[in-house]
């Protein structure tokens, strides 16, 4: 569904702006239709109905599917009623920030990992640590590395829901016509670059287009896979930025690819890449897995496949999870926990076969999503995503710290220009020095 797919794409840009719940955000409608039950709802009294609210950023059709799935939760939990509050993604951050600042946030709301970390550290989110400790079987079944990256000083302020991955979509016909073997699990950067060079046509098309991963975090996977120091030394609490020898090697590899015309320039607008791929004009597209939903629905005649992100030596996955959180003051934590647990598991089991945007972070609930991909003729994608999510080495998709916006400006002013040959590689060391100064600043 195009609306849902576009929302997931826009989310990558918007979650950077959700870093922390800020008092004094623009005013929003905070009447009873939007308020949570955290301030004064009497639904916890014996024999009385508990009313919960849940805010999502999904599109109209996927929200309708979520509302339908929630009916099962209400049936399984007599006495609890849930109102789903759809909020346009463009307004989501401002609205949820404003509601939390005046203690009127919904009982459950979708949250980026960075928002959960920063707002939790600021004492603005409910602490689910006791549930994590008592419900060990549940929490032990998340994909490796997921739960640890939602902890703030050992405390859990949200529960992960979905995980993005950044593999490579490829045009099967172009590979066949060029006499090339299709990419598969374990393919290397060298193989990807060779394919991109052979599939490019000067003046007509590049071989490789990067919808995502066209930043230092994306190229950091090369260094991490080679056993060298990644760009950031932590997913959630970076203390140092490094341009390691292998990171510099990756930069030069992509720089050469751009110069030769086999890789699309990093500073080029990427908005139309997915549409070009659907039209059969792009050989290789590195992008988020959510585009598969659009390709399955709207490019039925296109022969495409999906491979995991390439490696040097070891598998590496970019860590990019979203989930659910609650404000620090909630009236009915037991009921809210039941709801969050449901939406992170059973709800996605019901919704994702209809809208296959991303795999659940809870492994047992991922099967219906993978089954949908297989049913649509893409078992290789199901296998590739599962492979990436199980990778022991994970790297951040972006900065998740409170200083992130200050650091990001140094990336924006230099990195893509270096890859495109407009600035020298040495400028990356200056970029790293500037970011490290931001990290060390009081």
TrEMBL record:
Main location: other
Domain of life: Bacteria
CDD domains: PBP2_TMBP_like (cd13585)
Record's signal peptide: 1-23
Subcellular location: Cell envelope
Swiss-Prot/TrEMBL keywords: Signal, Transport
Keyword Lipoprotein: no
InterPro entries, per the entry: Bact_solute-bd_prot1, SBP
Name this protein carries in UniProt: ABC transporter substrate-binding protein
Family statement: Belongs to the bacterial solute-binding protein 1 family.
Pfam families in UniProt: SBP_bac_1
């Amino acid at each position: 569904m195009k609306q849902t797919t576009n929302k997931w794409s826009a989310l990558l840009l918007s979650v950077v702006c959700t870093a922390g719940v800020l008092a004094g955000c623009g005013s929003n409608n905070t009447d009873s239709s939007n308020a949570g039950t955290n301030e004064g709802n009497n639904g916890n009294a014996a024999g009385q109905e508990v009313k919960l609210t849940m805010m999502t950023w999904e599109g109209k059709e996927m929200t309708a599917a979520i509302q339908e799935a929630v009916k099962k939760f209400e049936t399984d939990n007599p006495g609890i009623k849930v109102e789903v509050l759809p909020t346009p993604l463009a307004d989501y951050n401002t609205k949820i920030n404003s509601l939390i600042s005046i203690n009127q946030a919904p009982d459950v709301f979708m949250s980026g990992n960075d928002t959960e970390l920063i707002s939790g550290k600021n004492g603005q989110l409910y602490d689910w640590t006791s549930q994590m400790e008592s419900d060990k079987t549940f929490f032990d079944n998340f994909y490796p590395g997921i739960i640890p990256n939602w902890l703030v000083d050992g405390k859990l302020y949200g529960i992960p829901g979905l995980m993005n991955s950044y593999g490579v979509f490829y045009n099967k016909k172009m590979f066949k016509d060029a006499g090339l073997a299709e990419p598969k699990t374990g393919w290397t950067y060298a193989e990807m670059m060779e394919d991109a060079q052979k599939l490019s046509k000067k003046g007509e098309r590049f071989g490789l287009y990067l919808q995502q991963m066209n930043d230092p975090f994306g190229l950091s996977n090369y260094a991490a896979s080679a056993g060298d120091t990644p760009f950031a030394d932590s997913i959630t609490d970076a203390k140092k930025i490094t341009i390691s020898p292998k990171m510099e090697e990756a930069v030069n590899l992509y720089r050469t690819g751009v110069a030769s015309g086999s890789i699309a320039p990093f500073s080029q607008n990427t908005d139309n890449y997915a549409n070009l791929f659907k039209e059969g004009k792009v050989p290789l597209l590195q992008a988020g897995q959510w585009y598969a939903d659009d390709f399955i629905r709207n490019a039925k005649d296109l022969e495409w496949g999906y491979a995991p992100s390439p490696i040097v030596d070891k598998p590496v996955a970019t860590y990019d999870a979203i989930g659910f959180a609650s404000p620090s003051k909630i009236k009915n934590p037991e009921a809210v926990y039941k709801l969050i647990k449901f939406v992170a598991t059973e709800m996605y089991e019901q919704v994702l076969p209809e809208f296959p945007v991303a795999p659940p972070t809870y492994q047992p609930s991922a099967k219906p999503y993978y089954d949908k991909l297989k049913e649509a003729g893409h078992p290789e994608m199901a296998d590739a995503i599962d492979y990436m999510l199980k990778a022991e080495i994970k790297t951040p998709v972006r900065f998740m710290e409170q200083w992130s916006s200050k650091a990001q400006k140094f990336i924006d002013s230099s990195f893509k220009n270096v890859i495109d040959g407009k600035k020298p590689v040495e400028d990356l060391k200056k970029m790293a020095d500037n970011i490290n100064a931001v990290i060390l600043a009081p």
